[in-house]
Amino acid sequence: KILIIGAGGQIGSELTTYLRGIYGSRNVVATDVRECKALGADGPFEVLDALNATSVASVVARHEIDTIFNLVALLSAVGERNPQMAWHVNIGALMNSLEVARQHHCALFTPSSIGAFGPSSPKVRTPQDTVMQPTTIYGICKVTGEMLGNYYHHKYGVDTRSIRFPGIISNVTLPGGGTTDYAVEIYYEAIRSGRYTCAVPHDVYMDMIYMPDVLRACVELMEADPARLRHRNSFNIASMSFTPDIIAAEIRKRIPSFTMDFNIDPVKEEIARSWPDSLDDTCAREEWGWRPEWDLSRMTDDMLAAIRSRTAHPRHA
Ligand code: VAH
C-alpha cells in the first residue's frame, strides 16, 4: 500500500488521484498537515505532521505501507523568504521519511528539481552527473536530499528513487511559491483577464513539464527494474524549455488579444538565472524508458480548455 505525505500540494493532489486510479483507492493513503476534504472523498485520508517521526511511523505501521511518496517542500521563492523554515520542513520531513522507510522496509520517492543545479552547473543540456552548487536554500535542500537518498540506499539498502522535476505546470492545484509559478498563472490570467504581468524576465529559459508527464514518470520510475538503475537520486528528465516570451506567443496563437507586461521580482530573477536552460535526460531514457508525451502546443490547448471548462462550471469548494 502507498502513503503520500504532503498530498495537498501541487504534485500530491493529482498524484493521489492518479495512483488511486492505478492501484485502487483503498491502497493509497493520502496525508497532509492540513485537513483536505477532496482527498478523503474517494480514499483514505489522514492529517499527518511529516515533522513528527512517531506519527509518520504510526501511519506506516497501521496501514502496512510498502511505498512512500514524500512530497513535502517549501518551494524556491518562498524558501528564500524563510531559509531556516525551508531547511527545517524540507529536510525534517525527508529524514523522517528515510528513517521510517529504513525501519519499515518501504520504498521511498522524493522529488528533486532543476533547482538542485546552480550557476556553476553547465546551463545547456545539463548533464545527469555534474557540478551542483545551488544558490537557493531550496536547491541546497534538494541536493542534500539527493545525497541522503543515495546514502540510505548504499548504507541500508533502502529502495530510494527520485526525479529532478522541471517547473511543473498543472490546472488542478496552484503551485506554492515557486519561481516557475508564472508558467501556471499565465494560463489562468489569459482566460480571466486576457493579460498577465510576469515576474520573470522575458528571455530566461527554464525547463518545464506538464503534470500528466510528471505523474506517469513517478510511476514508471517506481515500477522500473531496480537492476537497470545506475542512478537513483536523482534523475534528470526533460520535456520543454521555454521563456515567458515563448509561452506568451503560444497563448496569443489561441487568444490574439492576450497581452503580457513585466514587473520583475529580483528574487525570482536571480533564482531563474541560476538554473539550467535545458537538461540532458539520456540516463532516465536509458535506465527506465522515460519519454515526454506533452509539448508546449498540446499543453497550451489542454490548459486553456481545462481552465475554461472550470471557469464556466466552477467546482464546488
Ligand atoms: C519552484 N516549481 O519553482 C518549483 C520547482 C523547478 C522549479 O522546483 O521552486
How would you describe this protein?
The structure is a single chain. The mean pLDDT is 96. The chain has helices at 10-23, 37-41, 53-62, 76-81, 83-104, 137-156, 182-192, 211-222, 244-254, 266-274, 282-288, 296-312, and strands spanning 2-5, 28-32, 45-47, 67-70, 107-109, 112-113, 160-161, 163-165, 167-169, 195-198, 206-210, 235-236, 240-242, 259-262. It has 317 residues and is of the alpha/beta class. The strands form four sheets. Strands 3-2-1-4-5-7 form a six-stranded parallel beta sheet, with helices on both faces. The longest helix is centred in the N-terminal third of the chain and has 22 residues, at 83-104. (3R)-3-hydroxy-L-norvaline binds next to strand 9.
Beta percentage is 5-15%
End-to-end C-alpha gap: 29 Å
Strand order of the largest sheet: 3-2-1-4-5-7
In DSSP terms (H or I, runs of 4 or more residues), the helix count works out at 12
Bound molecules: (3R)-3-hydroxy-L-norvaline
Average pLDDT metric: 96
Count the E strands.
14
* Helicity level: 40-55%
Order of helices and strands: EHEHEHEHHEEHEEEHEEHEEHEHHH
